[in-house]
Design goal:
mainly alpha
Length: 657
């Protein structure tokens, strides 16, 4: 019987050497009572660990340590504890091994990768370098790889590249994951072309490994001293990255070579058919290439393969949005919300789609449901603020932005609330929010956007000089924005700096000749400066651009009136009234022209019309006061106009504008 068990032990040893773990366990355990040597006991423990029976493995090693206190037993137990996730316990065993046998590389190596697992990278680097000092070419390549991974994970990408180069410098010792690691490190240093070159080599090798009946286990054994567990880990890396094609597609995408990126995913689909994630990825690349039909087909395939793949819905909605088909995007999001009612992200996107379609009344209840699902995300309150703003419910929008700011002091939200305060004529509050925005983002004050906002608030506070200074800074940062020249011109107009204000209008028109309001403003400035010909030219230019503009004809009428060109003035004023018969001030100027021509009846009629079309909220008594305050008219004319205006009010009870 003893002979048979010894034979079982020998078979167990043979299969263990061949990495046929299940057969090794079968025979080793049958003859375990004859496996009396220390190394045999440790092999049995290793086999049990590889069969996912770690507690049995630890029990056997614990017994060996009690019996022999052997260093190799501590070392084996540390290895198993580490792979079980019990890292700190593993370190205790490794400390004992290194203390007793400091010249052996393996405990330094194992402790180094254990420190890596714990993200204690400085200690990991130290131990791996100690391991390298003690190793020869048969083992050192794997240590360089682990060192490279430590550098990579700790963000020292250039050091990682150097370590990967060292790893790959040993001819015939390379395996696919070395190339994957090198490619990722090169990508992190911005060397994308070099990363692609290495990854293509890794892909070629990974395909060879996967084509073997054992998926490359024998090749790994030939090239390295990695364990069967490590082989499983490496193979999983290959499969998780779809034989490195996912990484390759991302590298091509960085170069905006989206067709090559899509081709890489197509290769992956041939190796891993029907995978929803791959269809999704290729669909994204097709979208980025403006291949709308191909993108839609892939996204549909992704959803067929995995109806619960939320990102595919978002990508499909985005695909339609990029084609300016927001209604179709909305339908996708409605379907998504129907399936995932409790998803805050789906709810946010649906509300956003309604907003893009300017269907704010429908967006609001969706946003309110979003806040029921997730009331601690400031973005949800920002969305609510934008909806209220669009609905012209500014006070509620302010409250929403305030809640968002309570959750997170965001510069952009301060800017949004500042604008609302500005619209609500709360200029002090608007100013305070601008200061808060600058405190939240130190770079913001150096943007034209911020200086422009500052200028408008100061302008509203009638701080004309400071407002002009803010607009000057904004113009320096963005000289192509004509609105900035307009705003500064208005400030300079208030400061009676008429020449500088006119120069601003000219500069703004140079920046954008289509910004027609500057013709009107410059014409007004010329009018104030008694430069009527220049004013007339600007007014005519404005009218050419806006042939139905009341303001254009009215301003030109004023200019002709000031030039004593009464016929032309009347022509312009009549043109205004043909567009808007309720334009009160036009009647007033016509009244003056008729008075000058001693056409008193026409003058009185125009004065009555002027009084009628003044602000409808102004009572008759105040209108009569304003009529009597007019200068340059005969008292009888004013009195007659007053009587007629009063009679019209008494006849109708009130006048409806």
């Amino acid at each position: 019987m003893g002979f048979v068990k010894k034979w079982y032990v020998r078979l167990g040893q043979r299969y263990f050497r061949k990495k046929k773990i299940e057969l090794a366990a079968k025979y080793y355990l049958k003859g375990e009572s004859e496996a009396t040597a220390l190394w045999q006991k440790l092999e049995i423990a290793e086999i049990l660990h590889n069969l996912d029976r770690p507690e049995e493995a630890l029990q056997r090693i614990g017994a060996v340590i009690e019996q022999t206190n052997a260093i190799s037993a501590y070392e084996r137990r540390a290895h198993i504890l580490r792979e079980m996730g019990r890292k700190e316990e593993a370190l205790l065993d490794l400390d004992e091994v290194i203390k007793r046998e400091p010249d052996s590389y393996l405990p330094w190596y194992t402790r180094g990768i254990t420190y890596r697992d714990l993200a204690r990278y400085d200690e990991a680097v130290r131990d791996l370098h100690e391991s390298i000092k003690r190793e020869d070419e048969d083992t050192v390549v794997t240590t360089y790889y682990e060192l490279a991974m430590v550098y990579y994970e700790s963000g020292k990408f250039h050091e990682a590249v150097d370590a990967f180069r060292q790893t790959l410098s040993y001819a015939g010792r390379d395996i696919p994951v070395y190339y994957l690691g090198m490619a990722r490190a090169l990508d992190a240093t911005g060397e994308v072309d070099e990363a692609i070159r290495y990854l293509l080599q890794g892909i070629e090798m990974a395909d060879v490994f996967e084509s073997k009946p054992d998926h490359g286990l024998s090749l790994l054994i030939q090239k390295t001293n990695y364990s069967y567990g490590a082989f499983q880990t490496f193979r999983q890396q290959i499969r998780n990255s779809y034989s490195f094609r996912m990484d390759l597609s991302d590298l091509y995408a960085q170069k905006k070579e989206f067709d090559l990126a899509a081709d890489a995913i197509s290769q992956a689909l041939r190796l891993y058919p029907g995978v929803a994630e791959l269809y999704l990825k290729r669909g994204i690349f097709h979208r980025l290439s403006d291949k709308w039909n191909e993108a839609e087909q892939d996204l549909n395939r992704a959803l067929e393969a995995d109806p619960g793949l939320l990102k595919a819905y978002y990508e499909k909605a985005l695909l339609y949005r990029r084609q300016e088909q927001e209604e179709r995007s909305l339908q996708v999001l409605l379907e998504l919300n129907g399936k995932f009612e409790e998803s805050p992200v789906a709810c946010y996107w649906l509300a956003d789609s309604y907003c893009r379609l300017e269907r704010y009344e429908e967006a609001l209840p969706v946003n309110q449901r979003l806040l029921e699902l997730e009331d601690d995300d400031p973005l949800n309150y920002v969305q609510q603020g934008e909806i209220y703003h669009a609905l012209e419910r500014e006070s509620q929008a302010v409250a929403s932005y305030t809640r968002a700011l309570e959750l997170s002091a965001d510069a952009e939200v301060f800017m949004k609330r500042s604008y609302l305060y500005y619209k609500l004529d709360k200029y002090d509050e608007a100013w305070v929010d601008l200061q808060e925005a600058a405190a939240a983002d130190a770079e913001l004050p150096e943007t034209a956007y911020y200086r422009k906002a500052m200028g408008y608030v100061l302008k509203a506070m009638e701080r004309w000089d400071f407002a002009a200074e803010a607009f000057t800074k904004a113009i320096e940062l963005n000289p192509g924005d004509p609105a900035l020249y307009e705003a500064r011109a208005e400030c300079r107009l208030e400061l009676n700096e008429l020449d500088q204000a006119a120069e601003d209008c000219t500069a703004g028109l140079k920046a954008d000749p289509s910004y027609s309001i500057l013709y009107s403003l410059r014409g007004y400035i010329h009018y104030l400066s008694d430069r009527y010909e220049e004013a007339k030219s600007d007014a005519e230019d404005f009218i050419r651009m806006h042939p139905d503009s009341i303001g254009g004809y009215y301003n030109l009428g004023l200019i002709y009136y000031s030039m004593a060109e009464e016929d032309l003035a009347l022509k312009m004023f009549n043109r205004v009234l043909s567009i808007d018969s309720f334009h009160a001030r036009t009647y007033l100027y016509k009244a003056y022209i008729h008075f000058n021509r001693i056409e008193f009846e026409a003058c009185i009629d125009c004065l009555v019309q002027w009084g009628l079309y003044l602000d409808a909220a102004t009572p008759l008594e105040r209108k009569l006061e304003q009529l009597r305050e007019l200068n340059g008219l005969d008292e009888d004319v004013i009195e007659t106009a007053s009587v007629r205006l009063s009679e019209m009010y008494s006849q109708t009870g009130r006048y409806l504008n």
